[in-house]
């Protein structure tokens, strides 16, 4: 673990320096390969609409392997802590390497970053197949950890691709569809992990992930370059000035980030609540926990789908509404303490939770200036998982000490306090988008 930052820093530094004019390998191999793949996807066929498919394939294969590997580690070691550590491992490199990630996003063409990241993930995963049987579990675990940085590059750079290739009036819809693609891939991959692990050995699961990565790497070549010369000028300005510093100066974006982090706070509570509410509020057992988890997954997915037709209405009400709207059904679900009403009310909370996430995610990406876009995308990729981790610890401790109802009241109190403190951002982000 100690060597991870330096090792990954060398990797991303190598990617950062990769240029056909300065690198012999790139000139001799990558350029001919790029030329061949460009014949498969000529300019008229490349489109940002391939982004949801790419994210679906990427997350589906990734989470199929990740969940299966976590289960395997738990069964071999008997440790729930180690199994949970495997599940959280892909987010660690992004947290440790936020600075290099920000510089890559600020200085390099986003569509090429996606291609390089997918190619690197494919090579790493294929190399794991060569590990001997006694070292395969350790190799696969190290693979998941090392590959996390490249997966973060893919998911962050695709947001930059959409910002540069999609018209402003269609950007919200494009970001929402991309989010649905990512969430669907996550859900499908996690759902397939159990059946796949029962019929395939660990090496077979890695081979399946190699196949999905080969497809997502191919889809990466179908992504377009940003239209016009403005994105190039903006990237040059960002790379030479504020874009290399990981901070956001715009007060509007800072307020939006504060509200966006409420989603991380809710996610931390939800991670604890899916076990605590069925067991301690409803007095059920493991079967009710399983039902609660299943309904929660369906509700989150339904919320992401509902956000798509709701886009035309999300901007017509104050931004603060989407922060406080999920709180009444959450509190009602805990207070009512009856199985069927609690399930329905908690599912409604999760639907509104997901709509709020989509709303604030779209606002951040739309309101960010070209100079601060890299920092916004990097902070989104790092602050959200770190906020979830902190929230899990706080909410878990609070539930253990005083129970789920005071914990839910604390979630509502923090939500109302942050919403009141950040003021109204509706008109400001509208003006930012108009200026863009």
Written overview of the protein:
It contains 20 helices and no strands. Helix 9 packs across helix 17 and helix 18 runs antiparallel to helix 19. The chain has 436 residues and is mainly alpha-helical.
Essential attributes:
436 residues, mainly alpha, disordered C terminus, 0% strand
Summarize the structure.
The protein is mainly α.
Number of strands: 0
Return the string of H and E elements: HHHHHHHHHHHHHHHHHHHH
Strand content: under 5%
Number of helices: 20
Q: Biggest sheet: strands, sense, closure?
A: none
Rg, Å, rounded: 22 Å
Weakly predicted, low-confidence segments: 1-12, 18-30, 238-243, 425-436
- Taking the alpha carbons of the first and last residues, their distance comes to 42 Å
The proportion of residues forming helix, as a percent range, comes to over 70%
Gross geometry: globular
Question: What would you call the structural class?
Answer: mainly alpha
Mean pLDDT: 80
